Amino acid sequence: MWDGSDVIWTYEGVEDWYPLTTAQFPNFAPHFDDAAPEDIKGYSPPFLSTFIEPGLVQIWSGLAMRTAPGWAALIRAPANFVRNRGYECYEGIVETSNWFGPLFINVRLTRTHHPIEFDPNFPFLQVQPLPREAYGAAAENFSIIEDLSGFGEAEWNDFRHTIVRPNRDPHRKLGDYAVGIRKTQRAKDRDEPVKE
Predict the structure, then answer these.
(1) Which of 26, 64, 87, 123 could cross-link to 107 by cystine, CB 3.0-4.6 Å?
(2) What secondary structure letter does DSSP report for 160?
(3) What is the mean pLDDT of residues 107-121?
C-alpha cells in the first residue's frame, strides 16, 4: 500500500504491515545461504525494494535468468491481460546472455491509500526472448520521412494495401488481417509463393 510517499507491505499469514525499503521473501535468506558457496552467503536477492522516486517498487520474480549467446530478455507486463489498476509495469531489455542474475521487474504504484494485491495465480510480468539484432545496430538503421510529400510510390501502395483496400470491402470479415498474415508467414516458411 502506498500513501503517496511511503510504501508498506504485508503477506498472507501475518497481520502486520511493514515499511518497505528492502525486504527478503519470507524465510528465503537462510534457504539461500544454505545453498550458496561461502563467499556468496548473505547476498540473497531482495524480494521487494523501493526506489528514491516515490511509488516505484522492484519485484523479484524468484527466478534467475540466462539466455543463449546473442539473445536478451524483454521484461514487460503480460500481453493480452487486463492491467491492474493499482500499478503499471516498466518494460526493459536485459542482456541476459552476458548478465546472469535475478529476474526483476520495476512497477510504478498508481493507487494511493488502498491495498494493491499481487495475486500469485495471476501473472504480473512476461519475459520474451529477444535476438540482439532486433534492438542493436538494426534499430539504429532507419530514416524519417518528415512530411507526406516525402512518401513515394512504395509508401502509397503499402498504405493503399493495408488501409484503403480493406476499408472499401463491405464483405471483409473480422480478423481478416490476422488470417492473411498467418497464411503469408506459413507460405514463406515453406518457401511457397505468397498469394495476394
Answers:
(1) 87
(2) I
(3) 91
